[in-house]
Specification:
This protein is an alpha+beta fold. It has 18 helices and 23 strands. Strand 17 and strand 18 form a beta hairpin. The chain is globular, with a radius of gyration of 30 Å.
Length: 661
């Protein structure tokens, strides 16, 4: 391991550096930690590093410090020594973070517009609304204001506060108190400000902390909370107070989001499932997959790599906002380059498409006029999908074509305005069965006001009218957190929503489609897609009836970019059954069905049988018997799944569906 790093640096330089380091350490030990001053300006450092990006915020207030102060040691190392993997890949935490939604939480134009919308609906509540919203989107401004006795924090203050605009920056996460996580929610964050500790996952005795103390005035220490999912709880469980349509408090509360509680109520909860669980950080700050680790700080060549190393990716699902930030960097004053945004966008794409859900499509039965198609979704996330702010939604699109490619059925398509075709004018209920073109399966939360009407004004939200977002595996209606994570509406009584074989907690849903085929006897080519939107047209329609700098800006960006949905998962099969075939007419038997040992037997064939073909669910031929000179044929099915057996005769084909378990 040492040789890997030593080969990068001349030996003479190493000897001199070590001598200097020893003298420096001796000086620190004998005379205390000196106060250090940066020799280069941020612009000079940016030019030295060859970056073409806006400089990170620098400076500090009483309790917090901007990310630019951390970048000198923990950002890109031009020498290629620190913040790189054993293979030399740059994994510096600053550049990974700066293009994330976390870094841009205070710049997010949707959030800015939404706060303005809420304030215009209830102007008398402006001070309280803006203060509440900035606790999590601009914590370094909000809590500085409260800790120093300045009181409520406003959007006007945020706009002039370069440190607060740094969003969910390094310090707010790394100074959270251990005794507060998992205990306080709705932006009630508790920071350890005594002695200015900065917590990480490494033993205090193993940390070379003097440079950090000298340059930025924080003392690096071990804190187990940095790897605990509870670190995220303070902001990712938000309960708001309800106002009626006149702006008067109703005394009710509304769960705007409970992503952390959803995780608690799942198989991912590593406290209840220590061997199989995974924390929020495990997915969103994934550990580097090697045993060597990473040198954490530039400029100190005697430092050894440390592990574990969490990659500060913070990938989620909000591709819509990431693209808006990237495409409007000058307007929104982001600090990340296009290349850095591209990296975060690619990670988010990968998170959505590979780690969010599975989809399986089967044909349960087929008659002369109807194909009964089942689409099964399996949530892979450690929380509901979608999760977070209630505007987000996912839905199923089902397309059926014939052998000529002509469309027989299309459900869940999207119009040019980004809206789903065929949905109800107010809100679409949950469906177990879809029998009509105006029924679409949409997974979402729909907010209701004090009168039980749909609202997109968060402060008016009293109860969810619908919450059929896909539950995570292990989710239970008897869990202590169920009061904040309820399934609401007809999904609660759907027999296969979060239930499988009568057992709760499957994290699945099966949608049963009745597809009209109008007597077609050929193949059916069936594709199921699952789409995701962060800001659907309905979620912003009321807001766009108001005007103001933040709303007008976001509306212009929204109209320019559009709101095309993102494909999460797709599955295609070919069904070759005709719905009118009956092997009894031919005298042929096929058994067992289902097949449990992989062996299928076909018997009773005679000279009328010209051949037998076996296809898997994707339409791929997996076995074939040519000629009708065998009365019995045994074949081994390659794996578990659904198969279609086609027995060909001169008059017509007979088709049978077989399941291998």
């Amino acid at each position: 391991m040492a040789a890997h790093y030593v080969t990068r640096i001349p030996k003479v330089f190493i000897v001199v550096a070590l001598l200097c380091a020893g003298l420096s350490l001796a000086a620190w030990k004998g005379h205390g930690v000196p106060v250090a001053h940066a020799y280069h300006t941020p612009d000079e450092l940016s030019a030295y590093r060859g970056t073409q990006q806006r400089a990170l915020a620098t400076g500090q207030n009483t309790y917090f410090m901007a990310s630019g102060n951390c970048a000198g040691c923990h950002g890109h190392d031009p020498s290629g020594y620190a913040m790189v993997t054993a293979e030399g890949k740059d994994v510096n935490v600053v550049d990974d973070w700066r293009s994330s939604i976390m870094a841009n939480a205070a710049r997010d134009p949707f959030w800015r517009a939404k706060v303005s919308h809420e304030v215009q609906v209830n102007p008398a509540h402006q001070a309280g609304l803006e203060n509440k919203c900035t606790t999590c989107h601009a914590p370094m401004g909000n809590f500085e204001s409260h800790y120093t006795g300045q009181g409520l924090y406003s959007i006007a203050q945020l706009q002039q506060d370069t440190i607060a605009i740094d969003g969910v920056s390094c310090v707010p996460c790394h100074i959270q108190r251990k005794d507060s996580i998992d205990r306080f929610f709705s932006g009630q964050l508790h920071f350890d400000t005594l002695g200015r500790p900065l917590f990480g996952p490494y033993a205090t005795a193993d940390i070379f902390g003097a440079p950090m103390e000298s340059f930025v005035g924080y003392v690096p220490k071990y804190g187990s909370q940095i790897l605990d999912a509870g670190l995220c709880a303070g902001c990712h469980t938000l309960i708001t107070e309800t106002a009626d349509l006149d702006g008067n408090p109703s005394g009710d509360e509304f769960v705007e989001q409970a992503t952390y509680h959803e995780w608690l109520n799942s198989d991912f909860n590593d406290r209840e499932h220590p061997e199989t669980g995974i924390t929020c950080q495990g997915c969103h700050v994934p550990l580097l997959d090697d045993d060597i680790g990473v040198v954490l700080s530039a400029n100190y060549i005697f430092l050894q790599p440390k592990t574990p190393f969490g990659q500060h990716h913070f990938a989620g699902a909000n591709l819509f906002m990431l693209n808006m930030l990237k495409d409007n960097g000058d307007t929104l004053k982001v600090t990340a380059t296009d290349a850095q945004f591209d990296s975060t966008i690619e990670r988010t794409n990968r998170m959505l498409r590979q780690h969010t859900l599975l989809i399986e499509t089967t044909v349960a039965n087929r008659t002369a006029d109807t194909a009964f198609v089942n689409v099964k979704l399996n949530n892979l996330a450690g929380h509901k999908f979608p999760s977070g702010y209630p505007s987000r939604r996912a839905w199923v699109e089902l397309i059926v074509t014939d052998d000529n490619g002509d469309t027989l059925y299309h459900n869940g398509g999207v119009g040019s305005n980004g809206e789903i075709i065929g949905i109800d004018p107010l809100w679409e209920p949950h469906h177990d069965q879809i029998t009509s073109p105006d029924q679409v399966q949409i997974y979402e939360m729909v907010m209701g006001d004090v009168n039980g009407d749909v609202t997109t004004v968060l402060e008016r939200a009293k109860d969810p009218l619908k919450d059929n977002r896909l539950a995570p595996s292990g989710f239970s209606s008897t869990h202590p957190t169920y009061d904040t994570t309820r399934i609401v509406g007809t999904a609660f009584t759907d027999p296969d929503f979060n239930h499988e074989n009568g057992m709760e907690g499957s994290g699945t849903d099966v949608v049963h489609y009745h597809v009209p085929v109008n007597g077609i006897t050929g193949g059916l080519h069936i594709r199921a897609n699952v789409w995701y939107q962060s800001a659907p047209p309905r979620s912003v329609a009321d807001m766009f009836t108001y005007s103001g700098p933040e709303i007008d800006l976001f509306q212009n960006l929204y109209n320019t970019q559009g709101n095309a949905p993102f494909l999460v998962r797709s599955n295609a099969i070919v069904d070759l059954s005709s719905g009118i075939d009956d092997l009894r007419e031919l005298g042929v038997r096929m058994f067992p069905n289902p097949v449990r040992d992989g062996i299928l037997t076909i018997t009773g064939m005679d000279a009328r049988v010209l051949g037998v073909e076996v296809y898997d669910a994707s339409g791929r031929k997996v076995s074939e018997l040519k000629g009708g000179n065998r009365a019995t044929w045994q074949l081994r099915l390659p794996s578990n799944g659904t198969y279609v057996v086609v027995i060909r005769t001169a008059a017509r084909n007979f088709v049978e569906r077989v399941v291998a378990l």
